[in-house]
Amino acid sequence: MKTERQISSGGVIYRAVNGKAEVALIAVKEGKVWCLPKGLRENGESIARTAHREVKEETGLDGKIIKLIDHIQYFYAHKEERETKRFFKIVYFFLMEYTQGDMKNHDSEVNDCQWFPIDDAIKMV
Fold first, then answer.
1. Is the distance from CB of 24 to CB of 100 less than 8 angstroms?
2. Domain 3-124: which topology?
């Protein structure tokens, strides 16, 4: 089976409330899975630009990129009509400081978006 490579980027967008950090998470899969916003890189985009765009689309929030945190990589398979495709995916995550925006403007592919205290966010993902 041929393996296709995918590059995605996302972000950990945070804000301080009463001196404590909160992180924005999105809910997907009918609200059953909470995760960080991320998505596929478009042609010509840098990984930082992809992270900024995807965070804004999926959360409704805008932020300033502080730094690249790290990346993850994994294989997965996706069944299509007559064949199963295999992918090797690399996802880069950036730390982003919230600057403006409203979660009610999140993308329709996201079921929900909420702020969580950092410790709760870690447990949820």
1. no
2. Nucleoside Triphosphate Pyrophosphohydrolase (3.90.79)
